[in-house]
């Protein structure tokens, strides 16, 4: 897992902003202390995105393809996951920062906070 679980998706740290009115995707790979990918077979995940008042705007869950809003794991054994939002969903956002919490749920049902921080939404493509 990540040593520092706080992570902000913004242009200033080299990650992508959510571009309002466009499809958006960002990937993350879960690795162990030796930087080896963790096998996520049997795991599920959930990303909750909140506004500044802690109201839940989106609850993203696992999806089976790269064309649906949610969390996509193309090959769970690689540890790679994509948070993705389609245009229909990004168009509902206003420019600004949104809190997120990304949890992984083990096959036995144990939920662990994987990452948390802020996602920055901007108008237009950066």
Describe the structure.
The chain is mainly beta. It has a single domain (11-123), classed as Sandwich (Immunoglobulin-like). The protein is built from one helix and eight strands, in the order ββββββαββ. An eight-stranded mixed β-sheet has the order 1-8-7-3-4-5-6-2. The longest helix has 4 residues, at 87-90. The radius of gyration is 14 Å and the shape is globular. It starts with 17 loop residues before the first strand and ends with a strand. The mean pLDDT is 87.
Biggest sheet features: 8 strands, mixed
Counted up, domains total: 1
pLDDT average, as an integer? 87
Determine the CATH topology: Immunoglobulin-like
Give me the count of strands.
Answer: 8
Helical fraction:
under 10%
Task: Please tell me how large the radius of gyration is.
Answer: 14 Å
Per CATH, the superfamily is Immunoglobulins
* Uncertain regions spanning at least 5 consecutive residues: none
Could you spell the SSE succession in H and E letters?
Answer: EEEEEEHEE
Number of H- or I-type helical stretches: 1
Q: What is the terminal-to-terminal distance?
A: 29 Å
**What shape does the CA trace take?**
globular
The top-level CATH class is: Mainly Beta
Strand order in space, largest sheet: 1-8-7-3-4-5-6-2
Q: Determine the structural class based on helices, strands and strand pairing.
A: mainly beta
Bin the strand percentage.
35-45%
Q: Give the CATH architecture.
A: Sandwich
């Amino acid at each position: 897992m990540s040593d520092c679980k706080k992570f902000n998706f913004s242009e200033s740290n080299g990650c992508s902003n959510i571009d309002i009115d466009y499809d958006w995707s960002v990937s993350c790979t879960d690795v162990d202390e030796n930087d080896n990918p963790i096998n996520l077979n049997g795991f599920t995940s959930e990303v909750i995105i909140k506004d500044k008042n802690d109201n839940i705007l989106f609850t993203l869950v696992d999806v089976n393809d790269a064309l649906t809003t949610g969390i996509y794991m193309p090959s769970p054994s690689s540890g790679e996951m994509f948070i993705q939002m389609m245009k229909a969903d990004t168009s509902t956002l206003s420019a600004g920062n949104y809190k997120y919490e990304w949890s992984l749920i083990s096959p036995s049902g144990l939920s662990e906070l994987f990452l948390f921080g802020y996602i920055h939404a901007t108008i237009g493509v950066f």
